[in-house]
Specification:
Blueprint lengths: L5 E5 L4 H12 L3 E6 L2 H13 L4 E5 L5 H15 L4 E4 L20 H26 L6 E5 L6 H4 L13 H18 L6 E5 L17 H12 L10 E3 L2 E2 L3
Parallel strand pairs: 1-2, 1-4, 2-3, 4-5, 5-6, 6-7
Antiparallel strand pairs: 7-8
Helix pairs in contact: 1-7, 3-4, 4-6
């Protein structure tokens, strides 16, 4: 097995995921660029390599058992273990005008599609990669969430939390909850798992609306991916610190 630490970032071909991959690569990690689109994946790998990052492509559709299994096998062949997993891939789902998902008129298929990627995809990838993560001396898992998943903030009328997103926001609450369950299961082990909120970042995910750059959005995930052994686990963070559940 190589001594260089290896990271896998899902949805890493663009936006925040790409910048997480870039940031980890700059710290000396070998980075697997997980993405389902072959052309975009290879373009991202080439760009990272041009910047001096030891990057390799990982074909990955997080909603497919077969694809995820193949990805785990590829990483085993490439590195023999996995030190960091960043579950970044996510979707918002179809919405109406103003980026609103009205709960009273919500298509259940939209909810199923969002949860399949944002929650089930995370579980699927995490469990497939666990045997590889357990071979690391300091495994780290980061689930890229959102502050709209905070029930405390959503329920406070004095906090501006954005439009009603009745599929996307609950999917992130679900993701936060499953992060806590993993942390409970990993208690007493060397695996640290946390959720990260990138903030409102100007990417194609948001229609390029938002005050933050992808680099800024990646910062918290990179910090959590490189925590020391006595770092926190089972928590939810943004740049300014912990976010209430």
């Amino acid at each position: 097995m190589t001594e260089t630490k290896t990271a896998l970032v899902t949805g890493a071909n663009k936006g925040i995921g790409y910048e997480i991959a870039s940031g980890l690569g700059a710290l000396g990690y070998r980075v697997g660029v997980g993405a389902r689109d072959e052309a975009r994946r290879e373009t991202a790998v080439e760009k990272l390599r041009a910047a001096g990052v030891d990057a390799f492509g990982v074909p990955l559709e997080v909603t497919s058992d077969h694809s995820v299994t193949d990805a785990a096998q590829l990483i085993e062949r490439q590195a023999g273990r996995l030190d960091v997993l960043v579950n970044n891939a996510g979707i918002s789902g179809e919405s109406g005008p103003g980026w609103v998902q009205d709960p009273t008129a919500l298509d259940l298929d939209v909810v199923r599609t969002v949860v399949d990627t944002n929650v089930l995809g995370v579980i699927r990838v995490t469990n497939a990669m666990l045997p590889l993560l357990r071979r690391s001396t300091s495994p780290r898992i980061v689930n890229v969430s959102s502050s709209v998943g905070s029930l405390t903030r959503q329920a406070d009328p004095n906090i501006e939390i954005g439009p009603i997103m009745a599929a996307y926001a609950p999917s992130k609450s679900f993701l936060n909850a499953i992060t806590v369950q993993y942390a409970r299961q990993f208690a007493g082990t060397n695996i640290l798992i946390n959720a990260a909120c990138p903030g409102l970042v100007a990417t194609d995910f948001t229609g390029f609306h938002g005050p933050r750059t992808p680099e800024q959005g990646a910062a918290t995930a990179i910090r959590l991916a490189t925590l020391p052994d006595d770092g926190p686990t089972g928590s939810f963070f943004e740049d300014d610190g912990a976010i209430p559940w």
